[in-house]
Amino acid sequence: MADVRIIDLTWLQVGPQATRILASFGAQVIRVEWRHPAAIDFLRYMQPFAPDHATPAGGRSQGAARSRGIRGNYDRGAYFNNTNPGKYGITLNLNHPKGRELLRRMVIQANAICENFSPGQMDKWGLGYEELRKLNPRLIYMQTTGVGKFGLYKNYVSYGPTAQAMSGLTYMSGLPEPYPPAGWGYSYLDHSPGYFGAMLLMIALHRQRQTGVGAYIDLSQTETGLMLTGTALLQHQLTGEPTSRYGNRMPFLDWSPHGAYRCRGDDNWIAISVQSDEQWRALVTELGSPAWALEAKFATARGRKANEDELDRQLGSCLILHDRYELMERLQRRGIPAGVVQKAADRFDCDPQLKARGYYVDLPHSEIGTWPVEGFPAKLSRSPADVGGRTRRASPKLGEDNEYVYCELLGLTKAELAALKQEDVI
Amino acid sequence: MNSETSLDAALRGVVVLEIGNELGDYAAMLLAGFGSDVIKLEPSGGSPSRRIGPFANDNREHSLFFWRYNLNKRSVVLNDDNPAARSLLARMAAKTDVVLLSGDFETVERRLSLWRELAQSNPSLIVCTITPFGLSGPYRAYRATDLTQMAMGGIMAVCGYDPGPDLKYDTPPIAPAMWHAYHIAGEYAAIAIVAAINFRDLAGEGQFIDVSIHEAVNTCTEIAIPTYIYNGQTVLRQTARHAFPHITQFRLSKSADDIYMLASLSPFEREAQAFARLADEVGIEHVLNTPEYKQLEKEDPNSAYTYRNELIEQLVSRLPAHEVFQRAQAHGLAWSPIRRPEDNLSDAHFQARQTFATIEHPELGRPLLYPGTVASDGAAPHMRYWRRAPYLGEHSHEILEWSGCDARELDDLRSSGVI
User: Fold this and answer.
1) How confident is the model over A293-320, as pLDDT tens digits?
2) Could you tell me the sign of the dihedral formed by the alpha carbons of B333, B334, B338, B344, in that order?
3) CATH class of the domain whose range is B7-220+353-415
4) Could you report the per-residue pLDDT of A11-34, keeping only the tens digit for each?
5) What per-residue confidence (pLDDT) applies to B4?
6) Residues of chain A positioned with their CB less than 8 A from the CB of B151
7) B211 Cβ under 8 Å from any chain A Cβ
8) Band of residue B1 on the pLDDT scale cut at 50, 70, 90
9) Most buried residue, A9, B27, B89, B108, by CB count within 10 Å?
């Protein structure tokens, strides 16, 4: 993506997720922010924060510690740092006419612009797609909103959890009634639409390179959620039955046992997923062939399915004293799909697979030092993804690259830059 | 608000050969939605995902899983494991842009050795593998399913129900239904393939891509990892809300028509004000705007939020869900009913956006609506699904013809059991 420049007006998670991926493939992503407290990215001032003792020369090596953040310092947000590596950072006041003029100048030289403001905000500034394409007819304009820029709900507001609730994803997750939906423990629909955003941008860039044509992309988080509802919609249309929840069980294959089982320790669990009678027999042997497991009713997949409550209860009490990792290895040696329900510490400190693959990447930050950020989950042999992008850095400090972008890329003089700062434009 | 055209044909001319199982179905279907010509190579017994339920009208030939994840594709029966298939695959490789191999490590490795060879004479070929843990590392040959990947990748640990007052959990971590490990990995695989297509635009070269489902799931847990790395804290799973280092207040409420609502307020003052106005409008008595309440918010925020949450619950219980939804949204509150997916099928919003694709199913004598796009260009969807999943070998004849084999070669392939 050496030929690509992206003006990134996005904030929070869903927009920055998409441009993060573009940056890791070498696009020049310029993150545009404004320093007014009401405009600053929430991720810059929400938990978690880097520990107060973290310095530019240090970082993770100085140790982890809780922090409430340092008042007035917007450069210590840990989640922000993980979400925006490899990007350039500038400040720009779009409420100021000169700010809007500067943005227009940047748009002329850009391949794409991305934003996830509330619907209509860019139009109010006179910076909507129709205006900007007059300046740059090849422009790709991508906008991410909860339910889409047009349609009946075009003015509806939404966060990730709102889109999850509406799409059906929240409902589908959890134990059967009478349990309420468990939903998702985070904004899944701030992640997946970001992946789609990256995909759409790259597809549009490929076309732009080949045909010179731009694109207007109205990306909807709720539509992304619907894309992820599996076979539920088809099944409903054919049976008329309402969609229900299955917990961790597998309703669509003869796989049983299929669930999470408690192991030794505090809230420690292992997921086991038996796909065949052969795997079941191997599991029984590994557990020392307890009498209950040899009962005829459990010998076939159909029998196990029919007696799944009892099976889960018996297996559960059988596993409670086991060490979860030891058990996983023993079951894997017998070819049984088993995986520890890994918590953050397990994934970061222990997981030998992530370590061997170099999944976490240490990157420096100009305020809080060097910290690991989450990597890209695929290895490309010729154009590898590199989350440090062109900046070789984790996230930018607020306005860190003003001089580079305004002077070197846009050709302003340092005096002009100083004047603009004086006028509260940058 | 129209761009020249939607992106639904932006990958036209990109030929994808898909060989594998349910780990790769979705990735290839995404490419097909943007105009790629996806050819599914299936063994004579059919692709394994044809055997995953649910099934339409209990007909084992009609897997809804296969239907869902194989739209727009063409199918050719070709036993690629047969050594005699080599010459045919070599012919196909010369006309192919992307090869997508999915499945367990051993199966993919076995297939990959041939494609490594074929890529040497086709340097612009992009070969992408999707395996549970990637092609290297100590877990590479571990057995996995969607459930165990959701466990090891970290999503399960942050999804589920509240613990008791002693912070002990009596319910297991939950893997949100269904197939999300493969969704996440499929999206990343499509991204990586399109990134490789962009690289090929500039450099003229193809490459190998090794997607690890384990790593893909790991990227998708929001603040869980940063909270641990920076603060040494573990986030706790909680009912239908964000996993967080401490337990936050329960926030599910039920409407007058017994539907769960997602009705909560972010820390922004704008939302607190909007809620006070909504409460006034619905006739809920409150003291939210009094100096006493503002004082309580400062001194004892937990009690203040408890009071406010009780007001929310009261308000939601007074009205049917759709009315709460519309009124809250009119005040700029990001609330929504917790819908079943099918509640969206008849929603005029999605009809206006052409969110659902109508796919004809002659075997049912009726069409079905499929989720068809995630984005629009203002006039048309950016993705287009138009053809039902293929029957086994439905396009064998035309694909073999396209491969350039003559009649004698086809006879030989037939007699050696390749086709």
Assistant:
1) 999 999 999 999 999 999 999 999 999 9
2) positive
3) alpha beta
4) 999 999 999 999 999 999 999 999
5) 63
6) 260, 269-271, 339-342
7) yes
8) very low
9) B27
**Tens of pLDDT, residues B56-89:** 999 999 999 999 999 999 999 999 999 999 999 9
Distance from CA of A278 to the nearest CA of B (A): 14
Q: Is the ipTM of this complex over 0.95?
A: yes
For residues B362 and B389, is the Cβ–Cβ distance under 8 A? no
Same fold, A5-227+358-422 and A258-262+269-340: no
A185/B207 CB distance under 8 A: no
- Nearest by CB to residue B377, choosing from A152, A215, A342, is A215
CA nearest neighbour of B176 among A164, A193, A269, A268:
A164
Distance between CA atoms of B275 and B263, rounded to whole angstroms?
10
CB-CB under 8 Å, A218 with B377: yes
Inter-chain CB proximity A252 and B65 less than 8 Å: yes
Cβ neighbourhood burial of A218 (10 Å; 0-12, 13-18, 19+): buried
The Cα-based distances of B204 to A143, B198, B200, B201 in angstroms read 31, 9, 4, 6
The pair phi, psi for residue B69, each rounded to 5°, is: -100, 10
What are the structural domain ranges in chain B? 7-220+353-415, 250-337
Mean of pLDDT values over B239-249: 95
Chain A hits for B340, Cβ within 8 Å: 168, 171-172, 232, 236, 242-243
Query: How is domain A258-262+269-340 classified at the CATH fold level?
Result: formyl-coa transferase, domain 3 (3.30.1540)
What is the predicted pLDDT for the residue at B2? 44
Looking at chain B, the whole-number percentage of residues with pLDDT higher than 90 is 96
